[in-house]
Specification:
123 residues, mainly alpha, 56% helix
Length: 123
C-alpha cells in the first residue's frame, strides 16, 4: 500500500514536468493503476483481523474516489497537440496512429551544423 501511495505523487510530478501528451498519459496510466490497487488493498483490510478502527479504511477509499474525479478533469486538460508520436501506439492523441508517418522525419538535421567536430580533434 505504501508503494502505491508513493507512486501517485511522484507520477503526478513527472507528468507535470514532462508536459508532452504521450508522457503525461503514460504517467496517468501508472497513477490510475496505483490508485485502483490502493483502493482494493484498503478494502481488503476490512477482512484483516487485528484492525479495530475500520473508519480509516472507509475514509481512504472515499478520498481515492474524490481523487478519481479530480484525476478525470486533470487528464482532460492535457494538450493533445503537444506530443511526440508513441511508436507503441498506446498514448497517442485521438486520430494519431503508431503506423502514421512521424512528422519530425521531414525536419532535416545535420549534427555537424550544430557541433564543431573539428575542434575536438585539435584538443
Amino acid at each position: 500500500m505504501l508503494e502505491n501511495a508513493m507512486i501517485i505523487p511522484a507520477k503526478i510530478a513527472g507528468a507535470e514536468a514532462g508536459d508532452l501528451y504521450d508522457l503525461r498519459m503514460e504517467n496517468a496510466a501508472i497513477i490510475r493503476k496505483a490508485a485502483r490497487e490502493l483502493y482494493v488493498q484498503a478494502g481488503s483490510l476490512r477482512f484483516e483481523e487485528g484492525i479495530t478502527d475500520k473508519d480509516y479504511i472507509i475514509l481512504l477509499r472515499k478520498e481515492i474516489d474524490e481523487f478519481r474525479l479530480l484525476f478525470i478533469d486533470w487528464v482532460a486538460g492535457f494538450d493533445m497537440w503537444n506530443y511526440i508520436k508513441d511508436e507503441w501506439g498506446l498514448f497517442n492523441p485521438s486520430g494519431v496512429s503508431a503506423h502514421d508517418k512521424d512528422p519530425d522525419d521531414d525536419i532535416p538535421f545535420n549534427p555537424e551544423d550544430f557541433f564543431d567536430f573539428d575542434d575536438d580533434e585539435e584538443n
